[in-house]
Amino acid sequence: MTDDVTAISEETSAEAETVAAAAEEQTASLANVSHTATSLSDRARDLSDALSAFEVDAEPTAAIAIDAGGVEREWPADDEYTVDSSAVDSTGEELEGRAGDWPEPQ
After folding, report:
1. Own/partner pairs for 52-59, CB < 8 Å, 24+ apart?
2. Based on C-alpha coordinates, what's the Rg of the chain?
3. Which regions are flagged for Basic and acidic residues bias (predicted)?
4. What secondary structure, in 3-state letters, does 20-80 show?
5. In sequence order, what are the beta bridge partners of 74?
6. 55 and 46 in contact (C-beta within 8 Å)?
7. How confident is the model over 71-96, as pLDDT tens digits?
């Protein structure tokens, strides 16, 4: 009986060491993730600050989209077309125009 208790105790001790090592590894990983997230947040703030220095007063002169065939198309921004469900501009807005109505790529 004493041998059984000793074996169980040794097995429990080994498993506890395994769990402790895994917990230590997870703690290190979480610290790394936290550091990376902080760094990313700092970079995003720096980028936002840099972008806020730019000012664009001009109206767009052209629109670009990917047509149903996967071809990038460009045309003057003031042109209007009928709606094609597969055509969106760079902001995700649906474009007016059927792919066949678009001018050839420039």
Report:
1. none
2. 30
3. 95-106
4. HHHHHHHHHHHHHHHHHHHHHHHHHHHHHHHHHCCCCCCCCCEEEEECCCCCEEEEECCCC
5. 64
6. no
7. 776 666 555 544 444 455 556 565 55
Task: For the chain, give every domain's residue range.
Answer: 1-55, 62-101
Which residues have C-beta within 8 Å of that of residue 34, sequence separation ≥ 6? Answer: none
Pairing of strands 94-96, 83-88: antiparallel
pLDDT digits over 26-48, tens only? 999 999 999 999 999 999 999 98
Please name every residue paired with 64 in a beta bridge, in sequence order, or none if there are none.
74
Taking the C-alpha atoms of 7, 8, 12 and 13 in order, what is their torsion angle to the nearest 10 degrees?
-30
pTM (predicted TM-score): 0.41
98: helix, strand or coil = coil
